[in-house]
Amino acid sequence: MKKFASILWVVPGVLLVAMLLLWNQDDPHASTRGGMAGLGKINAVLELIRDIYVEEVDLDKVVDGAIRGMLEELDPHSGYIPASELKEVTEEFQGEFEGIGIYFQIRDKLLTVVSAIPGTPSDRLGLSPGDVIIEIDGKNTWGITNEEVQRKLKGKGGTSVAVKVRRSGLEQPLSFNIVREKIPINSVESVFMLDDQVGYLRLNRFMATSDEEMRTAVSALQAQGMSRLIFDLRNNSGGYLEQAQRIADLFLPGGLVIVSTEGRLEQFGEVLKSTDGDDLPALPLIVLINQGSASASEIVAGAIQDHDRGLIVGQTSFGKGLVQRQLEMRDSSAVRLTIARYYTPSHRLIQRPYDKGLASYYEEAYDELDPNALPDSTQDRPVFRTRAGRVVYGGGGITPDVRIHSGRLTQYTSRLRTNQAFFDYANHKATSGPLRQRLEAMGWPRFLENWQPEEGLLRDFAAFAGDKTPFDESEWRTDLSWIQGYLKRELARVVFGRDEAAQVDLAMDPALAEARLLFGEAERIQHLASVAAKKK
Q1: How buried is residue 340: exposed, middle or buried, by Cβ count under 10 Å (0-12/13-18/19+)?
Q2: Whether 262 contacts 340, CB under 8 Å
Q3: Would you name the residues annotated as active-site residues?
Q4: Most confident of 5-19, 120-134, 244-258, 416-430
Q5: Which of 55, 178, 201, 521 has the fewest Cβ atoms surrounding its Cβ within 10 A?
Q6: Rounded Cα distance, 517 and 152, in Å
């Protein structure tokens, strides 16, 4: 028996060698035939897996994995989107989907409502921050995944879904029958006046509706007396190239290069220019960027900087300057393949180097020790000139005109944020009860301008968070102003809403505070652009 068993073990090995030898013999010129030889090799390996692997496998999954592997060898941004994910990815940038209209998080395996989207079915029925959805269509949600939530709550408009909610302060759960409808996805995340002159507009992505949202938002700010604008592109990871062109076009006079693309094939080279269309008013402009600003954000920031249209403030942007084309496969999956590179109007390459591998590529982008993020990093970087002759720097990403570092939190406060202690405490304390009543009675303007968490509330928070985040007195005192701010923000979210929470966030934002002092420099740059335009 032992002899027989050893023969069985050897045969597949012999078969494997024989099949690979046969594959090579089928094409004696394989080493010179490039891609065709590679396809034959892939097919041979797939046949081996199908015929002799230890157990049956889903070959579709194996093929998907092979495609991912091939694309990962090319660059960090070519990629594969399975058919099961393509619809959701497309919806994210179309500006709407059909569902019930909530922002949610999975907290300790519980499906928790962060907030209802204003004007949606969930908002009209009164779903509130901190509500825990314990059942969907009669099935318990404990341990549910993000993908399952999407699948169960999204659906065709006009259909309904039954949800059961546990709300703090109530003994019995609440039941809702929610009729799905089209839910808008807004790319303008925040828009309001910071004072009687300065408007603030935050764009979180470049979607199909972004340029129209921008026009509407700016018109609303103008109606409130805006004469200066802060345009926040921090942590905006990009989106549609067409929208980047249109939004840059809103700020620029006609006939100026916004971005150019260059690829191996001439057909993928293109120069996109501004038009003489309906521009936004030529008011002093500051654009905020950071290491999370990428792709379309960098195109807009680069065009504004190179044409001296506004002051770029913050941190060196991510450096994602590769152009992808999405190609749909027969099975409704898609391949995103890099076909060209982006260049700013001064011909700076936006893409950062990625020759150290994917791990280093992403780690360095968000590392304060990244050479591109250091104050003296410009010494060894290629120099370019703006339209008015100002020096700007290449080497990857957009280097701001004025660099502002965000600072570092202590480990204790970082853990509080990672463990979502502020979020949980606000949901626990302010969805109902005396704290909510007191803050509601105070009203939003007084809350924003004057209220800070008092000592008793802060100590109660520290005790609440202590189970997951052991108290550290020294680090608590170091970050006390940040802790107060984060707690105030989450209480604002629960009691007043998401927009109000964003305003609290901005009130304690050091980059924004410093940017508001820089409009003199923004006006100087704008004047330089005007002089340069007249000379030409």
Answers
A1: buried
A2: yes
A3: 295, 306, 320
A4: 244-258
A5: 55
A6: 48
Domain identity same for 386 and 431? no
CATH classification at residue 219: 3.90.226.10
Q: Residues 86, 90, 91, 93: is their CA dihedral positive or negative?
A: positive
Q: Distance between CA 402 and CA 407 in Å, rounded?
A: 15
Quote the domain boundaries for residue 371: 188-407
Is the confidence at residue 121, as pLDDT, over 50?
yes
Q: Are strands 160-166 and 132-136 parallel, antiparallel or unpaired?
A: antiparallel
Question: What pLDDT is stored for residue 33 in this prediction?
Answer: 52
Q: Helix, strand, coil proportions of the chain in percent (round to 5)?
A: 45, 20, 35
* Last residue within a domain, chosen from 150, 184, 218: 184
Q: How many domains does the chain have?
A: 4
Q: Looking at the predicted structure, is the pLDDT value of residue 8 above 50?
A: no
Please choose, from the candidates 512, 531, 532, the residue with its C-alpha nearest in 3D space to the C-alpha of residue 233.
Answer: 512
**pTM of the predicted model as reported, rounded to 2 decimal places:** 0.80
Report whether pLDDT(290) > 50: yes
Same domain? 166 vs 261: no
What SS3 state is found at 43?
helix
- Give the pLDDT confidence score for residue 232 in this predicted structure: 97
Q: Does residue 71 lie in a domain region?
A: no
Pairing relationship of beta strands 139-140 and 132-136 according to DSSP bridges: antiparallel
Give the pLDDT band of residue 34 (cuts 50, 70, 90): low
